[in-house]
Amino acid sequence: MHAPGGRYFTEISEENPLHFVNEYFTLQSIRMSIFDLVFILLFLTSVVTLSTAAVAAIRGRRAKALSILRVYAICFAIYMGIVIVVALAAPQRIVHLGEDRCFDDWCITVEHADRQPTPAGVAYTVTLQISSRAKRVSQREKGVHVYLIDAQGRRFDPAPDPAAVPIDVLLHPGEAVETRRTFTLPGDARGVGLALGHEGSFCFPGCFIIGDDGNPLHKRTIVPLQ
Fold this sequence. Notes:
The chain is of the alpha+beta class. It has one domain: Immunoglobulin-like (Sandwich), CATH 2.60.40.1240. The protein is about 25% helix and about 25% strand. Helix 2 runs antiparallel to helix 3. The longest helix has 28 residues. The chain is elongated, with a radius of gyration of 21 Å.
């Protein structure tokens, strides 16, 4: 099950927006890492701990409730410190043209990139394939963003295109669709690559898992285009 980031946001249908919780906690894949298991254990422990503290407070045992919360807060801070340190120290992941980048059964592939000079610099048209390896359910991946980045660390977002297939398009079982994004870069851009990952609140729960590149502090996965 381990494929960082938004694998937790796979949806079965529009009517069941919380399916990603069930999907994540279904231990059905041999791809789950030890850190996924640690997160699940800590998540369940957190539920029990906070429930115990709440019950103690309701029963008037506030000192016990505060003691439980104090210990929990210390343990949580230590764990999140480890998550942050690992995220900052982890190497950047490189994915090549034609190689799938999958989050559970949802995959995105940079098929090819066309580079054309323009009066303003250079334009890249990147063809992406979005596919589903699921056999029984329809799904989409929320919060995935793609942009270009150069050797100077400059970010270039795609040009708006209302007609383009959205990256979070709903896919039926086994379905694959193509979409394109166009980027305009200055002529001095070198070492250009396409960065992809989850942004915003859609990093949950990857941002709480040790070593998961869904964490916004983790270096973005890059597909070199030059």
